[in-house]
Amino acid sequence: MKNFFRTIFFPILNAFESGTEPYAYKPSHRAILIFIGCLFSGLATSVLVFMPWDDPGYLIPVIIFGIIGFLGLLIGLIGTDRAVAKIWGSRQ
Fold it and tell me: 3-state DSSP call for residue 4?
């Protein structure tokens, strides 16, 4: 199942997994990235649910929080160690 999602999201993952420079990866970085992804996805969902529909300006935080949450969950769940380290900016 993980390989199926990796092939679907290959263009996004490739941007974060490319490179040959050394990196420093810690398993806690992946856990924190997944937590942050859940947090931003929850924020996007709650803003979408509780926003007044007469003002479309509330869609801006939904889109921004949704994209950040999606990328965090995507890289945290199916990304490689290099992708997680690149998100954190970890270099050796």
Answer: helix
Angle between helices 27-50 and 59-78 (to 10 degrees): 150
- DSSP assignment string, 19-86: --S-B---HHHHHHHHHHHHHHHHHHHHHHHHS-TT-GGGHHHHHHHHHHHHHHHHHHHH--HHHHHH
Compute the C-alpha angle 42/87/80, nearest 5°.
Answer: 95
In a domain, 13, yes or no: no
Task: Write the pLDDT tens digit of every residue in 11-37.
Answer: 999 999 888 888 888 899 999 999 999
Q: What is the pLDDT of residues 36-92, one digit of tens each?
A: 999 999 999 999 898 887 888 888 999 999 999 999 999 999 999 999 999 988 776
45 domain-assigned: yes
For residue 16, tell me if it sits in a domain.
Answer: no
